[in-house]
Amino acid sequence: MRTTTTIIRFLFTLFLALCLGSLVGVQHASAQVSFTGNTTDGLSFNRPDCTGAIPTACTAGTVSARFKRDVIVIGSAGNYDILSTQTFDGMLYLNQINSPFDPNNPANNVLAFNDDAPNVGVSRITTGLNNSGANIAAFYHLVTTGFDTNEFGAYTNTITGPTGGLVLVSDGTNLSNNLTANTSAGPVWNRPNCPTANADPTSLASCAVSSGLSPRFAVHNFTPSCGGPFFFFSEQDFDGFLMLYEESFDISNPLQNLVAYNDDWPAQGQNRRSAFLVNLKPNTKYFFVNTGFDNNSAGTFEQAILGPQNCAVVTAVEDTEEVPQQYDLSEVYPNPFNPQAQFTLTLGQAQHVAIQVFDVLGRQVATLHNGPLAPNTAHQFTFEAAALPSGLYTIRTLGETFNETRQAFLAK
Questions:
Q1: What CATH architecture applies to the domain 179-318?
Q2: Distance CA 322, CA 248 (A)
């Protein structure tokens, strides 16, 4: 029996399955969706023992049964009716909003449950479901299983909800493969500063280029073959932002072509998850950018994308061509030196640059430049140390989008 380690691994598998066309969910323009599945080849777990259709309590069970799990992504709150017809004596469980499902501890996070309603082979759950906020969406786990070890087979689940409420349904049983990347070694930029009170991706008009914030970022791209709703989910080990760009991504103009963003999902304080629900155009290149909240926020993230079934999607890949060369800082030469050392700096974009020199005690001993520099020009700088004692010196070059140091040893 496998253990679900993170929500993100589960969601990314859904994305891969969608790309392969292996999912059985069918999306409708109406508020009803039907999909089929089969528990015959499903994993086994000790199904929970619950009291009441809307459980007052669920405890760890002792009866082993095969199961299949599906994910439901909804875009609006309301009452939802989930009807499951099975070729076996089945049971139906629904997990709490945005909660993980762990087959080793399946009694956790159960929102609703039904055994036989109105008879054997039919299970039904009617309950209110919530989304996470404006345009953010939410997901639930729906588990179809048998009454005991001998009960398994095909099933059809039909979900009816408010108009426009049901967005995506996919099989999420296989748990493997996820896009994992790290921003720690990425370039820096002045990320857009967007409202975060409600983390609403439609508030793009209120975004502005941040000043004083230059976190590192990683950018990936993908191209969907069909249009429709796509759910983006990122789980980070740092305080992160998730941003989506359409057709192009320009680090020097971070507001251009920005179509969605999220800081803390599903609400303020959830600073290690970012997500949004957005409609994408077919055959259009998109860039999603994972970045930190500030200069001290960087690390590993796991990214998932869930879209309509049978939608061929070019696998998301790291994009380096869209990130212009920000700077090229040469090594100091000669090194060791006496009494002069030189180096060159070439910028990919015009910006203010400060170049300072510090001794081994951290004292500033020289300023080589402090002002604007033009792009695409090799600027040469000279460190004159005739009046300084022998020793190791650190040259710090600080721009708007980078911070780099070089060391040089003065040997008299």
A1: Sandwich (2.60)
A2: 7
Handedness of CA 12, 160, 143, 36 (dihedral sign): negative
Q: Could you tell me the two tokens for 10?
A: 């589960």
Burial class (CB in 10 A: 0-12, 13-18, 19+), 292: buried
Structure tokens at 370: 């402090």
Under 8 Å CB-to-CB from 135, ≥6 apart: which residues? 75, 200, 201, 202, 260, 276, 277, 278
**Is pLDDT of 359 > 80?**
yes
282 closest CA partner among 231, 222, 198, 330: 222
- Listed in order, the ranges of the chain carrying CATH 2.60.40.2550 are 327-410
Place of tokens 């998850």: 273
Cα–Cα dist 80/155, whole Å: 19
Parallel, antiparallel or unpaired: strands 217-222 and 317-318: antiparallel
Q: Are 191 and 401 in contact (CB under 8 A)?
A: no
Backbone angles phi and psi of 214, in degrees to 5: -140, 65
The span from the CA of 347 to the CA of 357, in Å, is: 20
Q: Which CATH class is domain 7-171?
A: mainly beta
Q: What is the reported pTM?
A: 0.60
Classify strands 208-209 and 192-193 as parallel, antiparallel or unpaired: antiparallel
- The pLDDT tens digits for 365-406 are 999 999 898 888 899 999 999 999 999 899 989 887 777 889
Strands (E), 212-252: 217-222, 228-236, 240-246
Q: Could you say which architecture CATH assigns to the domain 327-410?
A: Sandwich (2.60)
Rounded Cα distance between 136 and 122, Å, is 32
Q: Across the strands, what pairs with 94?
A: 112, 142
What is the layout of strands, in order, in the sheet containing 340-347? 327-329, 340-347, 379-384
pLDDT in tens, 207-230: 888 766 778 888 888 888 888 878
Nearest Cα to Cα of residue 101 among 16, 192, 172: 172
